[in-house]
Design goal:
The chain is of the alpha+beta class and 1019 residues long. The protein has 29 helices and 25 strands.
Length: 1019
């Protein structure tokens, strides 16, 4: 480390540099203040930077002739950040990379015994021990620190031009050394390491901490030195200290002596740092001289961002005060990441303010950035995700996931639920989210607890099948469920459920149906151990709900499972009712794998009718009612040729229909095809598992899937527009049905076939339209090979006024189509709409009405025809014709109205997933074509005929993926006497990166399109 003394710069040159720099960066300053931050974008950027650094790990930096030693301080700082990213990455490759480093180093610190720089690598070894529990990883570090305490250095605390390096004589050392001592003290429980560290830290603080500026001098050579009249405080040097303080406080309990000692320093520095941040968002290399050091520097800025975000996350800093600074800093850092993932503007190795360059980086800069990202991620709602350990890319080249990972995922979800259980009598009751879900009063709490109990058992059952002694959070899971099932019949317990005393069974029937399924699944765990008296009471209670009225929908299966289980146990049940409900369930079938759930088509066709019927047949029906089971089987086998096409190439499900928070339950039928090996010999099992594992990854690896350790009520994160009044927080565990697949034998083909992309590899070729129309249900699936997305058009014909369940006419069903790439945006009462028409009603209470009353007309020549009527405005119909294209949708619609009409039509919407939306306008055939781009997809809206205006609209809190979203809307006014009543619109999409070409946007000039339009017939 060579001290770099700052030279005075010609003042005229400085003025010129500042003028040109700030002029060119004015837009970036505004962008850094305005650009939103999302957990997805943070995770994405962190992975890009981490992957780039690993790929270039053994290159040379800072003008050195050879790469840094793997135990050098430069790399030690990298490992600190990489460890933090390893904890939040989608698989364990980063842990394995760090583990390899430790093994190569034989877990030894670097060469110099006292030198703090040579100790920093120990932080990572200690963190690896925490994960892998191998004492070999920490023994050399402990031995070194023990030796230092037995042989304390006699050197003074002054650096004196690098003569004295055995103590913490320069401020960087406060990052390198002290956290090793603190971590070891926490791991071993030995206070001596903390005592020694605190004493040495205080000596350095007294020497280098400026009590007026609340910053640290880099070393004694900077004390009393001035640069342009200001004290010299090096950005990265103070970054080392500030970041190190958070690492130290992480090891101590708030209120403890060490924690409060470090907190005092931390708060003083934090308050100072936000006062001296540059307008662009970074911190100047000389903290008090930003006027003379205008060049960005990312390592110091990363450390400060890390430290400030940590303080907000731990309640030490006021979010309202500090968030603008953190947001600006994080966005500034992201401006300096190259296209291939390198973090630029990292000041090379030095010892004070100097220079940084756009195209130069250093490993410690990457480490600092990753540390910053880990805290900003948490600050903006990022949650722990499921991490794939030891992925198997030979058997599962697409996802890396095997049956063992499915077991791990089930346990991961169950561990979240049992984080609320500290005693065997604690209920599985979770924090309420949003304004829609119940409980809405204490009277609903008993059934809320019942949901938590019975639905989490879906997740627990296959785990208990594998391991009856499963223990989580010091609770034996089998004992817990048995105990709490018995609480349901204990009249003195708060969880007691009365026998049904009215005709209507309510939600209790649903949960008892779920409990009956689990009784079938693991009777040896939750049923057989009960006494005969307990069984009799439970049977009476559950049968009282199962033997009676139900909802004329998939609910009949709850009665069916209750009655079937107790019949299997020798109890008298209403077999006439059982058979009646079985036959009525069969009556819901509409061919091609689809059941109608009265009145809707949605995922209940699959995660309810198909899944329940297949499982009922396997555990009961084949033996007791073989003819009915045979019919269910025939219906079930139909899904293999239809349902897989509803998922994207990457195995993502479409956001569509009610109860979407059950999410992964959508895959529950696929594994159950394994019940019929003879009839499924030709099935592509690798594709079935690829889809299923893809959906699991879609959600369990999403940063906002969990909140408070429990899956949210929504699609990705919490989202009230997709939540129904009948859901509580525990309702989400209905998704656990997906894990009943683990009941399949380990040697089943579902678990052993090699993953592949199925029809996407050959059948669904690019540059073509791929539609599947199902005549009886009138459902159409479309696959878009160019972007690997799937789309569905289905039933919706329910008003929202004066009905009991208005959600059936809501966005869950009322869109013109639903696409796996573009989750639906909620309707805006102010007239902003996505993938739907919006009528301007003229009614004060409902000024805008989204389309919801659809009538299917026909499917002919690749065109899907429907009529859309207004619920509020009488005598208004729009004849709809959807023509899927290879990269979008062409709409040719016709207005039939006897009165003037104002209409709005919306494209799919794009979330600000990367914090921004780029908008552009092109003129094609004298028409304005508007394009929006969020860095993942770009959408174009083309007003071919009949439209008057087009605009982009940005809204908040209407999209399931990000707080902000943008949609393209097009509008017109119609009068009955006008000649043209035709509206032609092209809605196009493609992945970001390559702009739309003029040919792609000139849709009206396409000869094939013109021919298609001429074939239209609304009759």
């Amino acid at each position: 480390m060579k001290l770099q003394m700052t030279k005075k710069i010609n003042s005229t040159l400085i003025v010129f540099i500042l003028f040109t720099y700030f002029l060119s960066n004015a837009q970036k300053i505004d962008s850094n203040l305005q650009r939103d931050i999302t957990p997805i974008s943070i995770q994405k950027q962190m992975q890009r930077v981490a992957d780039w650094q690993i790929d270039h790990f053994r290159e040379t930096y800072s003008g050195r002739d050879k790469p840094h030693h793997i135990a050098d301080w430069t790399n030690g700082a990298l490992y600190v950040g990489m460890t933090k990213f390893a904890k939040m990455a989608k698989d364990d490759r980063y842990w394995q990379w760090l583990n390899t480093i430790g093994k190569k180093q034989k877990w030894k610190l670097h060469q110099r015994k006292y030198m703090a720089d040579d100790h920093v690598v120990g932080q990572t070894f200690l963190e690896l021990f925490r994960k892998f529990k191998d004492t070999t990883m920490i023994t050399p570090t402990k031995e070194r620190l023990d030796w230092i305490m037995q042989n304390p250095s006699q050197q003074p605390i002054t650096l004196d031009n690098y003569k004295h390096l055995e103590r913490w004589t320069w401020c960087d050392a406060l990052f390198m050394g002290p956290p090793v001592w603190a971590k070891l003290s926490k791991i071993t429980g030995d206070q001596k390491y903390t005592d020694w560290m605190l004493k040495e830290y205080e000596v350095t603080k007294q020497h280098l901490f400026d009590k007026d500026e609340h910053l640290f001098f880099r070393d004694n050579s900077f004390i009393d030195q001035l640069d342009h009249g200001n004290k010299i405080f090096w950005s990265r040097g103070n970054g080392w200290v500030f970041g190190g303080l958070t690492l130290l406080m992480d090891e101590y309990e708030p209120g403890s002596e060490p924690y409060e000692y470090f907190k005092d320093i931390y708060l003083k520095m934090a308050k100072k740092l936000i006062k001296i941040q540059t307008p662009q968002g970074h911190w100047s290399m000389s903290l008090l001289n930003q006027k003379y050091y205008p060049t960005p520097e990312t390592s110091g800025t990363s450390f400060f961002t890390f430290g400030l975000a940590w303080g907000v996350n731990h309640g030490l800093l006021d979010r309202k005060v500090y968030e603008p600074h953190i947001k600006k800093a994080w966005n500034a850092l992201n401006n300096h990441i190259t296209a291939d993932g390198m973090l630029g503007y990292v000041q090379p190795i030095g010892a004070g303010p100097d220079k940084s360059f756009k195209d130069q980086t250093e490993v410690y800069g990457t480490g600092a950035f990753l540390a910053a990202g880990s805290e900003v991620y948490t600050m903006y709602g990022g949650q722990r995700i499921y991490q794939i350990s030891k992925p198997d890319y030979k058997k599962s080249p697409k996802t890396g996931m095997t049956r063992e990972h499915w077991l791990d995922m089930a346990k991961y979800i169950l561990e979240g639920a049992f984080s609320y259980v500290h005693d065997i009598d604690d209920p599985l009751k979770f924090p309420k989210l949003g304004k829609v879900s119940y409980p809405r009063g204490d009277w609903q709490i008993p059934v809320e607890k019942l949901e938590g109990l019975c639905r989490t058992l879906f997740v627990a059952a296959p785990l208990l099948k594998e391991n009856p002694d499963l223990t989580i959070n010091n609770i034996k899971i089998a004992d817990y469920y048995r105990h709490n099932i018995l609480n349901l019949i204990n009249e003195s317990h708060p969880s007691f459920i009365k026998d049904k005393d009215k005709d209507w069974p309510g939600q209790t029937l649903v949960e008892f149906g779920a409990l009956a399924i689990s009784f079938f699944t693991i009777p040896e765990v939750v049923w057989d151990p009960l006494s005969q008296k307990q069984k009799d009471i439970l049977a009476r209670k559950m049968i009282s709900y199962g033997d009676g009225a139900t909802v004329p929908s998939n609910w009949k299966f709850f009665n069916i499972f209750v009655l079937s289980f107790f019949k299997s146990q020798g109890y008298d049940v209403n077999e006439k009712l059982l058979v009646d409900y079985l036959n009525k369930s069969l009556d819901h079938y509409r061919d091609d794998g689809w059941y109608n759930d009265n009145p809707a088509y949605d995922y209940y066709s699959m995660w309810a009718f198909q899944m329940y019927a297949a499982y009922w047949s396997e555990v009961f029906g084949n033996e007791h009612y073989p003819e009915i089971a045979k019919k269910f089987k025939s219906n079930f086998l139909d899904i293999k040729d239809t349902y897989p096409y509803m998922f994207s190439k990457n195995g993502e499900m479409i956001m569509w229909g009610r109860s979407i928070s059950y999410r992964i339950a959508s895959i529950s039928p696929f594994p159950f095809l394994g019940f019929y090996p003879e009839e499924t010999k030709d099935i592509n099992w690798g594709w079935m598992r690829r889809i299923s594992s893809g959906v699991l990854s879609q959600f369990l690896q999403h940063p906002e899937f969990l909140k408070d350790n429990i899956p949210t009520l929504g699609f990705y994160g919490q989202f009230d527009p997709a939540t129904q009044y009948y859901s509580c927080r525990g309702s989400v565990f209905w998704m656990g049905k997906a894990f009943l697949s683990l009941l399949l034998p380990k040697d089943n083909e579902f678990w052993n076939a090699t993953e592949n992309d199925g029809a996407w590899e050959d059948e669904l070729v690019k540059d073509k339209v791929h539609n599947k129309f199902f005549e009886t249900s009138k459902i159409m699936l479309t696959n878009y090979a160019d972007i690997g997305a799937s789309e569905i058009r289905a039933w919706c014909d329910v008003p929202i006024t004066g009905v009991k369940e208005p959600f059936r006419g809501s966005e869950n069903y009322n869109k013109l189509s639903y696409n796996s790439a573009f989750p639906w945006q909620a309707d805006d009462p102010n007239g902003i709409v996505s993938m739907n028409y919006m009528f301007k009603t003229g009614v004060d209470t409902i000024p805008y009405e989204p389309g919801r009353l659809y009538t299917f007309k026909k499917f002919k020549d690749g065109i899907y025809y429907r009529d859309l009527k207004s619920e509020i405005i009488k005598d208004v119909t729009i004849n709809l014709a959807d023509i899927p294209l290879k990269n979008g949708i062409l709409r040719v619609d016709r207005i039939n109205a006897k009165k003037p009409l104002d209409l709005i039509l919306g494209h799919y919407s794009l979330p600000h997933i990367n914090g921004y939306i780029n908008t552009s306008v092109q003129k094609i055939n004298n028409k304005e074509v508007h394009i929006i781009d969020n860095g993942i997809y770009q959408l174009a809206l083309i007003p071919v005929k009949g439209w008057e205006s087009i605009t982009s609209k940005t809204t908040s809190d209407l999209h399931p993926e990000a707080k902000k979203s943008t949609v393209l809307n097009i509008s017109t006014s119609y009068t009955p006497n006008q000649k043209n009543n035709e509206l032609i619109t092209a809605m196009l999409w493609k992945k970001s990166g390559k702009p739309f070409t003029k040919k792609e946007l000139s849709i009206a000039d396409d000869i094939q399109i013109k021919k298609k339009i001429r074939t239209l017939s609304f009759e």
